[in-house]
Amino acid sequence: MKKIDILKKLRSSGLRPTKQRVEIAKFLFEREKTFHFTVESLNKFFTKKSASKIALATIYNTVHAFKTAGHLSEVEVRGNKTYFDTNVSNHHHFYDSDTSELIDIDVNDIIIQKIPKAPNGKKIKNVEVFINLKN
């Protein structure tokens, strides 16, 4: 992703492109493969690797602004851990409980033959298969 795309992504998320936010955006979006992360793991990375200090609040606010703008999706694991995913298309996940890693499953690799009707007054937004793994 080009620098201009990074600036557009920040601005479309309602964020001013500060040095720290640009650094976060580059880390998240200038990669070839999907990236899954928690705010805590991102904070650890920037605490250890980054030349410029980035506050946890900046990381948190930037990630949530990207999510609200549709640049990241949120994946909740068993109601106690929230991951963010740079792949915002409909797809499925493996979750490795030994390594706490999310792994994408292509939407075409799973065939769903029947799903129940949504309760009255509700409609199905999407269907995601979540497969837990362990050693």
General description of the model:
Strands 1-3-2 form a three-stranded antiparallel beta sheet. Strands 5-4-6 form a three-stranded mixed beta sheet, with no helix packed on it. The chain has helices at 3-12, 19-29, 39-49, 56-68; strands spanning 36-37, 73-77, 81-85, 92-96, 101-105, 130-133. It has one domain (3-133): Winged helix-like DNA-binding domain superfamily/Winged helix DNA-binding domain (Arc Repressor Mutant, subunit A, Orthogonal Bundle), CATH 1.10.10. Helix content is 33%, strand content 19%. It has 135 residues and is α+β, with helices and mostly antiparallel strands. The protein is built from four helices and six strands, in the order ααβααβββββ.
Break the fold down into its secondary structure elements and pairings.
Blueprint: H1 3-12, H2 19-29, E1 36-37, H3 39-49, H4 56-68, E2 73-77, E3 81-85, E4 92-96, E5 101-105, E6 130-133
